[in-house]
């Protein structure tokens, strides 16, 4: 393979790598949890609440009433949502994921993007959302009254180093093929 063709191939691989941005569940500058397009997995952790909070995933198409009930905060468990299921909820890649808690003992709904919640990154696009379920003046501000963890899987984009290795392998295969055809 001619050096010009090799440089074209490598240039194409570099452009393709730049065009593909690795996606990961993330918190934007406004403190919103942004969905990236994979399967969403939500784990319910033990809480220190004296209430039985109900944890929901907000349906963007039909807020509150159409939202998905996930679990009671002390019940534990895990739920997953495919990209098509989330699309039915009005949640597409690049849009905000909003969880909320509700309780029969207080009339307020606390959103994960509001002041009664705290989103903490645990690395590798794993986030912990902790809710404070009391009024602000009585709050201990420990954000452990309802706690869930959220992550996405199945949407990974190869790292640039991996793409470069694939590209070098393709160049090697092309050179081997060229050598074999010139030997004939």
Short description:
With 184 residues, this protein is of the alpha+beta class. Helices cover 26% and strands 31% of the residues. The two termini are 16 Å apart.
Structural features, described:
The chain is elongated and about 85 Å long. The protein has helices at 3-19, 83-88, 160-183, and strands at residues 26-27, 33-34, 39-45, 54-57, 68-72, 77-81, 96-97, 99-103, 106-111, 117-121, 126-131, 146-153. 26% of the residues lie in helices and 31% in strands. It is α+β, with helices and mostly antiparallel strands and 184 residues long. A hairpin with a 2-residue loop joins strand 8 and strand 9. The protein is built from 3 helices and 12 strands, in the order H-E-E-E-E-E-E-H-E-E-E-E-E-E-H. The strands form 3 sheets. It has a 5-stranded antiparallel beta sheet with strand order 6-3-12-11-10. A 4-stranded antiparallel beta sheet has the order 5-4-8-9, with no helix packed on it.
